[in-house]
Amino acid sequence: MRAFSRSGILGGIAMAVLLLCSQSGAALAAAKFISAPNRVDIAYDDARGLLYISSGTQVLRYQLSTSSFLSPITLGGSLMGMDISPDGSTLAVADASYDATNNWIHLVNLDTLNDNVVKFALSFSEAGTWAVAYGNDGALLVTTGFQGSGWVPLRRYDPTRGKTTIVADSIDQDTMVRTSANGKIIALAEPNNSGGPYDRFTVKGKTFTAGGGTGWYNFEIGVAPNGSSYAIPTYGGTFIADQDLHLTGTVIGQYAGPQPIAAAYDPKKALVYFPWAETSQVKVYSTGTWQEVGSFDFVDTFSHTGNWAFTNGRAKTSKDGTLLFVTVDGGVRYVKTHHGKF
């Protein structure tokens, strides 16, 4: 008779439970932790296998293959939102700092780590830059802050021509931006406004389209890979809008309770990832049925954001969708998404 050790039996049970969880849509393995106490935003460099983390005056560089940090990129200022250019050559970084006449963004060459500071003349009572997003044409949308509470211009910066244009005269301060996986659409969530305005920028036509409103304070937004839907988290739940920016009537999560605090669409599959307040889960929803099909354990409990971005739950994927990164207390956690399990 073959003998089985207690540890072997328990190991077999654990494997069976994991398999059952992956097949039933229950929580999968816990996310790995990257310590970054002052983290703000994240951007994954697929070509180099590096996660960039904006943190105070520096961009931290974490190498996934060795589970270690490389030397940081020191830019100064107060670094905020980030995005990587479509060709993978440049990291754009917003900076909340400003002077008497200008605010600015940083464009970091990812081969040399040289920093090109691009300045913009301040509008009335405007503060520093808040978030950036590349379109598939290699140009950037740049959103900014306000010295108090008010409206600011929405800028498009074209690095190849060194040209800045105003694509909307007046949007809310600290607007969040998110580019669709195909790079053709940039979604915008305007905060600090009880009407909950959300918008779209079409890259090819260089056109800004104001959408409707959620009727709640917005603070984040997600957009499907081809722009076919939008997910707008609020304290009243996450509202789903269609490709024409019309609300569909689908609202996910509970008012003032367990609910999504961010949304990251999978770039390859009909899935969206929702960091879920009052739990440690990132829930996975089908964008066909808008029903939960699985979840990941991110260990740390996600808190409500107070209607502002960059507090916790900021979520991004790798270009192929196999990695999911989310900001948590004290740093960032990430998982392999196990494509095909959901």
Describe this structure as you would to a colleague.
With 342 residues, the protein is mainly β. It has a single domain (25-336), classed as YVTN repeat-like/Quinoprotein amine dehydrogenase (Methylamine Dehydrogenase, Chain H), CATH 2.130.10.10. The chain contains one helix and 29 strands. The protein has one helix spanning 6-24; strands at 27-30, 32-35, 39-45, 50-55, 58-63, 68-74, 79-84, 90-98, 102-109, 115-121, 126-134, 140-146, 151-158, 163-172, 176-179, 185-189, 197-202, 207-213, 222-223, 229-234, 237-242, 247-252, 264-265, 271-275, 281-286, 292-297, 315-317, 323-328, 331-336. The strands form seven sheets. Strands 1-26-25-24-23 form a five-stranded mixed β-sheet. Strands 2-29-28-27 form a four-stranded antiparallel β-sheet, with no helix packed on it. A hairpin with a 4-residue loop joins β5 (58-63) and β6 (68-74). The longest helix has 19 residues, at 6-24. The relative contact order is 0.13.
Structure in a nutshell:
The chain has 342 residues and is mainly beta. It has 1 helix and 29 strands. β5 and β6 form a beta hairpin.
Within CATH, the superfamily carries the name YVTN repeat-like/Quinoprotein amine dehydrogenase
Largest sheet: 5 strands, mixed
User: H/E series, N to C?
Assistant: HEEEEEEEEEEEEEEEEEEEEEEEEEEEEE
Determine Rg (CA atoms, Å): 20 Å
Number of helices: 1
Count of extended strands: 29
Q: What is the CATH top level name?
A: Mainly Beta
> How does CATH name the architecture?
7 Propeller
Helix content percent band:
under 10%
**Which consecutive residue ranges, at least 5 long each, have pLDDT under 50?**
1-26
Please state how the strands of the largest beta sheet are arranged side by side: 1-26-25-24-23
